[in-house]
Amino acid sequence: MSVRYLSCGDTAFSVEFGNEISPQINGQVMALHAAVGRAKAAGALGGLVETVPSMRSLMVCYDPLSTTRAELQPQIDALIARGLPADAAGRTVRIPCCYDGEEFAPDLAEVAERTGKTSEQVIAEHLTSPFKVYVLGFMPGLAYIAGLEPSLTLPRRPQPRVRVPRSSVAIAMDMTTIYPFESPGGWHLIGRTPLWMFDKRREQPVFLAPGDSLVFERIDRARFDAIASEVEAGKLDWSLFYSDWSELITP
Questions:
Q1: Which of 140, 190, 204, 146 is nearest to 27 (CA)?
Q2: CATH code for position 175
Q3: What is the residue-wise DSSP string for 184-214?
Q4: Residues 62 and 96 occupy one common structural domain
């Protein structure tokens, strides 16, 4: 496997797996991320602080008072030489999403018109897209989620919104995302989930992680409101969204 190492100051270096964004390359990044984590947990890689995955590379951060790139890089090479299965199983996360109404889906009709589909077809294809979280960025908890049905590919909006509501589900290019906070944004809003992608009350505030596979599940407004009330009250069992979220609310 051909990789490239680049220095990132005196406390980090990156391991690049290629120049394109693809499931295979991102899979190798995540496999190395996992392998480094296992090695560190076993007591190896002294001085390593953390690894940070991106679309096509892994940043290796270290304590310069304890180790150097010259010491760590051969150990990373050895992990790569053992093989990096790019199709390693990860978590599957279910995301309930309401696609109804102008409040939640203000751009749905426009997306349908521009892609030559009906709104229901857009929803159906978003629901069946094989989504995977590639990386987190821009703000805490915002995931760049690749795998959008190719026929839904659109550029960002020419005029970004000043305010996008928290938990809005949006698409742009070949990706979808979920806004963790109210913020400016230029993606096309086609739905909203009652879940919060970032909640400081949780033991792990950030809900999604690189490598997660996502399945969107359609809900109506009544179900949305019921789940949202659980979230607001801090009473939601978040672990259920890694299995069957429908157990949370009795229809």
A1: 146
A2: 2.40.100.10
A3: EE-SEEEEE-SS-SB-TTSSS-B---TT-EE
A4: no
Domain that holds residue 161: 92-239
Q: What sign does the dihedral 144-20-27-71 (CA atoms) show?
A: negative
Q: Please count the residues of the chain.
A: 251
Q: How far is CA 222 from CA 41, 100, 128, 251, in A?
A: 45, 11, 23, 9
Residue 15 half-sphere exposure toward CB, CA atoms < 13 A? 27
Helix 119-128 × helix 108-115 angle, to 10°: 90
CA distance 69 to 190: 45
Token pair, residue 183, equals 């913020």
**Domain final position from 22, 49, 81:** 81
* b (16+ CB within 10 A) / e for 81-98: eeebebeeebeebbbbbb
pTM comes to: 0.84
- Residue 229 vs residues 25, 59, 216, 234, 240: alpha-carbon distances, Å: 40, 39, 20, 9, 16
Would 109 be classed as within a structural domain? yes
Q: Is the dihedral of CA 62, 63, 67, 70 positive or negative?
A: positive
- β-partners of residue 191 are 169
Which residue(s) pair with 132 in the sheet? Answer: 146, 213
118 SS3 class: coil
Same domain, 131 and 231: yes
Q: Mean pLDDT of successive 10-residue segments in the chain (251 residues)?
A: 91 94 88 94 96 93 97 96 74 95 97 98 97 92 96 96 98 97 97 97 91 94 97 90 52 37
